[in-house]
Amino acid sequence: MSELPAWSLPAGAADQIALESAWPAEVTRDWAWGGATGGGVRVCILDSGVELDHPLVGRVDSSVLVAAGEDGEPVVTEDAEGDVCGHGTACAGIVRSLAPDCEIHSVRVLGPGYTGSGKILLAGLRYAIEQGFDVVNMSLSTTKKDYAAVLHELADSAYFQRTVLVASAHNMPVESYPWRFSSVISVGSHEEEDPLALYYNPNPPVEFFARGVDVEVAWLAGETLRCSGNSFATPHISALCTLVRSKHPELTPFQLKSVLHLVSSNVGGRR
Amino acid sequence: MSTDRLAAAVAAGVLGSEERFRELLRSVVEVARAIFAAKASSILLLDEEANELVFEAVVGEGEESLLGKRFPAGSGVAGWVLATRTPLVLEDVERDPRFAKDVAQDSGYVPRGLMAVPLLHDERALGVLEVLDRQARFTLHEMELLGLFASQAAIALDLLQRARLAETVLAGEEEGVGALARLAAALDGLDEEKRPGAAKLLAALDEVLRG
User: Do β-strands A42-47 and A103-108 pair in parallel, antiparallel, or remain unpaired?
Assistant: First the structure.
């Protein structure tokens, strides 16, 4: 019975879905991630690759490249190239700084022949969901409406299988995806310096604001740069999701989002 | 419509428009440079067939050497901005050894700070607008301003691409648009006596084609 989808709850079956962990009357940051280091959580950086052996990133557990094959269709191969821009390394470094013991997996969707058709991004996301990563950091989006429906399905699949997608909101007034979907956690920037300052936005579609201005990040050749943009706010939220998941692995993406809301600096946070 | 006005209309529509749109692009980067008190600003256009980014307009440092320069669109900061449709602001960019080497080779000038924003028109990413070494500290307000400039630059780039396409079509096509342009040119050259008849014929043609 347990393998069948739970379409309904028959009489007397409520005990079967009793949840072991009870939330405290007040959900605090200490309850949410106090003492957590991200151990056992698999984080995927869907980006430009992640530099190997960067001191601020440390171990990269796997790296693949998603690129167009001979027939033009996306193919996933092992990737030894590292990072072709620096951005993926920056995101990985931010996650590592807050969640030192998590696994980091790179799925590179930037490479020769790719200028954002959306097809590669989609294939990369599909691969990440198939791998069952716990958290997927997506500091990128596509403007192709044709891909919106498939992306939406993928985002929902991830949501139902407990893969948390954390996506950058667009800084410009354009329609882009997947950050607009309610099954993902969308992130914009605030201007504060505290990497743990986190704001819930009561006026979505952008749901949370995190540190995204003048952030010192890991970059190519073991270097660091100071960067700004929503794409740097996103890995801060990915890292917090990683911490919460390492401490409370039973939480669904819905519950995780609720925890983020409850501990936001403008809600009950800073405790 | 007088002969002069018709000639002007045809010319404005297609011939020579590339130059005008280039001026528009240049004016966009000039204003961007002034507003952000930056050392340089440029617009890069994506050449989809070659999968390369081309410097279409440059003002400030590197102006002479960068115009027309090309580089691969699948890597680097501009490549990332284009592919992900996401703006980026970087400081201390001279610490990125590959970036520093590439730009130093092309322009002899390595910026410290860089703002890059995608130029989006409908669903397409046409290119990237860059602002180098601005003076003020970056704030989210600047990001909004940059987005506004990007929208304007994207319209100018779209017009430039349309003008290029129109010129290519006119130069190479015997039928369709090419034939129409030649008809317009012929009408333009007719003397006063023959004009009313020709205009009548074109009006009838217009009714058939569009009716």
Answer: parallel
CA distance from start to end of chain B: 23
Nearest to A83 by CA among A121, A45, A117: A45
Q: In this complex, do B51 and A139 lie within 8 Å of one another by their Cβ atoms? A: no
Has domain B18-167 been given CATH number 3.40.50.720?
A: no
- Matching residue, tokens 């130029």: B119
DSSP-assigned beta bridge partners for residue A75 = A67
DSSP string, A70-110: TTSSEEEEE--S--SSSHHHHHHHHHHHH-TTSEEEEEE--
Q: pLDDT digit string (tens) for B180-190?
A: 766 777 777 78
Best mutation target among B48, B84, B130 (most A Cβ atoms within 10 Å) is B84
CA-based nearest residue to A110, from B187, B181, B79: B79
Per-domain residue ranges for chain B? 18-167, 173-210
Q: Name the residue facing B83 among A115, A171, A214 (closest C-beta).
A: A115
DSSP B161-178: HHHHHHHHHHHH-SSTHH
**Domain residue extents for chain A:** 36-262
CA B43 – CA A38 distance, rounded (Å): 42
CB A48, CB A108: distance < 8 Å = yes
Residue B87 CB burial class (10 angstroms; 0-12, 13-18, ≥19): buried
Evaluate whether the domain defined by A36-262 bears CATH number 3.30.70.270.
Answer: no
Work out the average pLDDT over B157-182: 72
pTM of the model: 0.86
**Which residue of A168, A176, A219 is in closest CB contact with B96?**
A219
ipTM value greater than 0.90: no
A75-113 tens-digit pLDDT? 999 999 999 999 999 999 999 999 999 999 999 998 876
pLDDT in tens, A183-232: 999 999 999 999 999 999 999 999 999 999 999 999 999 999 999 999 99
Q: Does A223 touch chain B (CB under 8 A)?
A: yes
- What pLDDT sits at residue A1? 44
